[in-house]
Write a structure and sequence with these properties.
Number of strands: 5
Strand content: 15-25%
Oligomer: single chain
Helix content: 40-55%
Number of helices: 5
Order of helices and strands: EEEHEHEHHH
Number of domains: 1
Largest sheet: 5 strands, mixed
Strand order of the largest sheet: 3-2-1-4-5
CATH superfamily: Ribonuclease H-like superfamily/Ribonuclease H
CATH topology: Nucleotidyltransferase, domain 5
Shape: globular
Length: 160
């Protein structure tokens, strides 16, 4: 059974992205720049999202010892996980997996599954361009999709 509301949050050094599902329907998505400035900003932004959307489940990326992320990004991800754990929601920390050659192919595949977000799929960048800001939303969407594929197994593992 799928929880009523699932909020998935992804963060990197420059921005935070989130998606909100109500059952299997994508309801809300957004990219924000200010929350990635500090751990306090990130935790505050997630707390506001939890207060506004009242999700049953919050999905964040697991912070593990074997990761290639920078220390500042790991600190931001840890702040998100701590904030989710301190609320009356099920905190699901998952390993971020990508089964595609790059994030742009993943974003296109996710947009095929969730057509409402397709106008936000960024075009593939050239080698010298910066990563598009809205790509972080697709990281969050990918994590939410991972949970929605096997909700019973994923949520039961998070409860133990």
């Amino acid at each position: 059974m799928v929880p009523h509301r699932i909020l998935a949050v992804a963060i990197n050094q420059k921005r935070l992205g989130y998606v909100l599902f109500q059952r299997h329907e994508l309801k809300e998505w957004r990219t924000m720049t200010k929350p990635s400035a500090s751990r306090a900003e990130a935790a505050g932004a997630l707390q506001r999202l939890i207060n506004d959307f009242k999700p049953a489940v919050v999905v964040t990326e697991r912070v593990g010892p074997k990761t290639s992320r920078s220390a500042s990004v790991l600190a931001l991800k840890s702040a998100l996980s701590r904030t989710a754990a301190h609320n009356y929601v099920l905190d699901v920390a998952i390993d971020r997996t990508c089964n595609f050659a790059n994030k742009y192919e993943e974003a296109s595949a996710l947009a095929d599954l969730y057509p409402a977000i397709s106008p936000w799929v960024p075009p593939k960048r050239r080698a010298f361009d910066h990563q598009p800001p809205r790509l972080i939303m697709f990281d969050a969407l990918s994590m939410a999709h991972q949970v929605l594929q096997k909700p019973t197994i994923t949520l039961a593992a998070a409860m133990s």
